[in-house]
Design brief:
With 378 residues, the protein is of the alpha/beta class. Helix content is 38%, strand content 16%. It has a 7-stranded mixed β-sheet with strand order 2-1-3-4-8-7-12, with helices on both faces. The chain has a 5-stranded mixed β-sheet with strand order 9-11-10-13-14, with helices on both faces. This is 2-oxoacid:acceptor oxidoreductase subunit alpha.
C-alpha cells in the first residue's frame, strides 16, 4: 500500500465519513480513494472549488456531528489558515493532511520537503495551539491517521497529519489492523438538558461536550472571543480564561499527545533526531556508523507539535553530538532542538532544500566530520 492510501484507509477506519478537498500534488491519491470508498460506507465525498471551501466544509460537517477531514499540500494549506483559526477558536474537531512538498509558492510541485514545520504551528495569528503528527512509514500513515482523529475528538482541536512526499508515495507491505484492534475515540455528548447546555463550559485543561448542529441542543460557534454559551464576550476575564483553556487542554495532556520512538539509544554517543523520511535514512546511517565503531542512536519524533522537548532533552543529555537531518533550508526542527539542548551541545544540522531526499551517507558524513567543521549543504 502507498502512504497516501494508508492515510485514507486509516481515516475511514477511525470513522471518518466526510471528505471535502481540492486535488493537489502530492496528496491527490487520498481524495481519489475517498471518492471511491466513502459513498460505499454511507459517507460523503465532495470535490470543492478550492482549499478555502474545503476546510470550511470540513468544519461544517464536523459541527453537524461527522468525523471530517481534508488533504492538501503547501499552497492549499496556506489557504486554509484563516478557517483553521476558526476551528481552533470554535474547538471544532477535524483533521487536515498536509503532504509536504518543496516551495516556496508553487515550488517543485512533485518533490519532497519538510519545510512546513513552522507554518503548521504558527500559520494562524493570535495565541493558539493545535496538534501535529508526522508518519515515517506506510504503517504509521495508517496508525497516525487513526490517532489524529482520536486526538481531534478527545481535545476538540484540529489535528494536522504532516507526511512529506517521500513517505506519502512510499509503497510497502503492511498488516492492517482488524476492526476493533485500535481504540477509537468519540467526542463526548452533553449529559444535561438542552436548556442547560453550554457548548464551551469547560474547566481549564479539559473540553466541553459537543452537541451536533441540528440536534435538540443549540450550539453557537463564532470566531470572535466568546463565553461558555458560545456568544461573543469581550470581558477581559473571559478572554483570560478562554485563551488559557485553548492552550491548557493540550499542555496538560502533553504526555498522552507526544509520541516518539527510539532505536539503539541505550549506549549511544551520537543522537539523531529525525521525523518523516529522514527517519529511515537516519536509521540506516546509524547502523553504518555502528559498523564503523561510532555508537549512534535515533529518536524519531512522531508528534511534532506540541514539541517533544522533554524527550529530546533526556536523550541529548547522554550524547556528545546531536544530528538533526531535515529537508528545508533553515533547519526548522534543529532550531527547536537547539532551544532544548542549549548552546553547549555539539548540534549538527543536515539540510537539503532542492527537492531530493537526504541520503544515509549525508547523515553519516555529518556524524563523522570533526567538531567545528562546516557542513556542505544543497
Amino acid at each position: 500500500m502507498q502512504g497516501n492510501e494508508a492515510i485514507a484507509e486509516g481515516a475511514l477506519y477511525a470513522g471518518a465519513r466526510f471528505y471535502a478537498g481540492y486535488p493537489i500534488t502530492p496528496s491527490s491519491e487520498i481524495a481519489e480513494l475517498c471518492a471511491l470508498r466513502l459513498p460505499a460506507l454511507g459517507g460523503v465525498f465532495i470535490q470543492m472549488e478550492d482549499e478555502l471551501g474545503s476546510i470550511a466544509a470540513v468544519i461544517g460537517a464536523s459541527l453537524a456531528g461527522a468525523k471530517a477531514f481534508t488533504a492538501t499540500s503547501g499552497p492549499g494549506f496556506s489557504l486554509m489558515q484563516e478557517n483553521l483559526g476558526l476551528a481552533i477558536m470554535g474547538e471544532v474537531p477535524c483533521v487536515v493532511v498536509d503532504v509536504q512538498r518543496a516551495g516556496p509558492s508553487t515550488g517543485l510541485a512533485t518533490k519532497p520537503a519538510q519545510a512546513d514545520i513552522m507554518q503548521v504551528r504558527w500559520g494562524r495569528h493570535g495565541d493558539q495551539s493545535l496538534i501535529a503528527l508526522c508518519p515515517a512509514t506506510v504503517r504509521e500513515c495508517f496508525t497516525l491517521a487513526v490517532q489524529a482523529f482520536n486526538f481531534a475528538e478527545r481535545f476538540r482541536v484540529p489535528v494536522v497529519l504532516m507526511p512529506d512526499e517521500v513517505v506519502a508515495h512510499t509503497r510497502e507491505n503492511i498488516v492492517l489492523p482488524a476492526a476493533g484492534e485500535l481504540p477509537l475515540l468519540q467526542r463526548s455528548a452533553p449529559q444535561v438538558a438542552p436548556a442547560d447546555y453550554l457548548p464551551f463550559a469547560a474547566e481549564i485543561g479539559s473540553v466541553a461536550p459537543l452537541a451536533a448542529y441540528g440536534s435538540e441542543y443549540v450550539t453557537h460557534v463564532t470566531s470572535s472571543m466568546h463565553g461558555r454559551d458560545g456568544y461573543s464576550n469581550n470581558d477581559p476575564a473571559n478572554a483570560t480564561w478562554r485563551v488559557a483553556q485553548l492552550h491548557d487542554k493540550i499542555a496538560r495532556h502533553r504526555d498522552e499527545i507526544v509520541l516518539t520512538r527510539t532505536f539503539d539509544t541505550d549506549d549511544m554517543d551520537v543522537l539523531l533526531v529525525t521525523h518523516g523520511a529522514t527517519t529511515r535514512a537516519g536509521r540506516a546511517a546509524a547502523l553504518e556508523a555502528r559498523a564503523r565503531g561510532v555508537k549512534a542512536g535515533v529518536l524519531q519524533l512522531q508528534t511534532i507539535w506540541p514539541f517533544p522537548d522533554r524527550e529530546v532533552a533526556a536523550l541529548a543529555a547522554r550524547a556528545r553530538t546531536v544530528v538533526v537531518p531535515e529537508m528545508n533550508y533553515s533547519g526548522q526542527l534543529a532550531g527547536e532542538v537547539r532551544k532544548v539542548v542549549g548552546d553547549g551541545v555539539d548540534l549538527r544540522g543536515v539540510t537539503r532544500w532542492n527537492g531530493t531526499i537526504i541520503a544515509p551517507q549525508d547523515i553519516l558524513d555529518a556524524m563523522l566530520r570533526p567538531a567545528g567543521a562546516v557542513e556542505a549543504t544543497a
